[in-house]
From TrEMBL:
Coiled coil location: none
InterPro entries: PABS, PABS_CS, SAM-dependent_MTases_sf, Spermi_synthase, Spermidine_synt_N, Spermidine_synt_N_sf
Protein name: PABS domain-containing protein
Any Pfam family hit: Spermine_synth
PROSITE patterns named in the record: PABS_1 (PS01330), PABS_2 (PS51006)
A Gene Ontology cellular-component term: cytosol
UniProt record, GO biological process: spermidine biosynthetic process
Family in the record: Belongs to the spermidine/spermine synthase family.
Length: 222
């Protein structure tokens, strides 16, 4: 056993109130404080421990085979941020929605434990996913956004003067409502008069849409 692993087991025994000889001993006050903080965080939200948000643990297929580590969208990566305050947490019909204030990235939107955007760097994502396709099309007029309930992609599409109609199909209305409350800089995209909001399943929406109706379809779904 390596020294680091041995120390980890020793610390766990201290936290459990047991010495190496198995005899019950008083837990040091510092360990009690650490354990109490972790337990309080767990009651607050499962992804927040000791003041830090971390994306969920690995998932397996039930046969011991690891499907992904932490974020299923970005295998092999783990994202953690220091949490100053949890602003919103609730489960919608489709997913868990969490918003918290972080130390370095401002407000953070999390869906089902996966970070969707932060105040600090949301522009990098919104601009790339919107402007690259639209700038590759000559004078796009009709654009559809699948997902994108935070409104950031709408905000960027609205910068294109040739666009006459912007349709957005978002299945989870809670994401829209939460974004309007906590991320007004993004959700202002909904205020453009060219925007037509549809709440529902985008698959069904597209199935009923006339072929060739949209010059561009931007998928911003989680």
């Amino acid at each position: 056993m390596e020294d680091g692993e041995g120390r980890g087991l020793a610390c766990q025994k201290i936290m459990d109130g047991k010495a190496s000889d198995g005899v019950e001993k008083p837990i040091p006050s510092c360990c009690l404080k650490a354990r109490a903080a972790a337990e309080a965080d767990a009651k607050c939200h499962s992804t927040v421990v000791s003041g830090w948000f971390s994306e969920p643990r690995s998932s397996s297929d039930g046969h011991g085979k690891e499907l992904y580590y932490n974020n299923p969208m970005w295998p092999g990566e783990a994202h953690s941020m220091k949490v100053e305050k949890i602003l919103f947490k609730e489960r919608s019909e489709y997913q868990e929605v969490l918003v918290f204030e972080s130390s370095n990235y401002g407000k953070v939107l999390v869906l089902d434990g996966i970070v969707q955007l932060t105040d600090k760097d949301e522009c990098a994502y919104q601009e790339m996913i919107a402007h690259l396709p639209l700038c590759s099309i000559e004078s796009p007029k009709n654009v559809l956004v699948v997902g994108g309930g935070d409104g950031g992609v709408l905000r960027e599409i609205a910068r294109h003067k040739s666009v006459e109609h912007i349709h957005i199909c978002e299945i989870d209305k809670m994401v829209i409502d939460v974004s309007k409350k906590f991320f007004p800089e993004l959700s202002l995209g909904f205020e453009d008069p060219r925007v037509h909001l549809h709440i529902g399943d985008a698959v069904e929406f597209l199935r009923n849409a006339p072929e060739g109706k949209y010059d561009a379809i931007i998928v911003d779904s989680s």
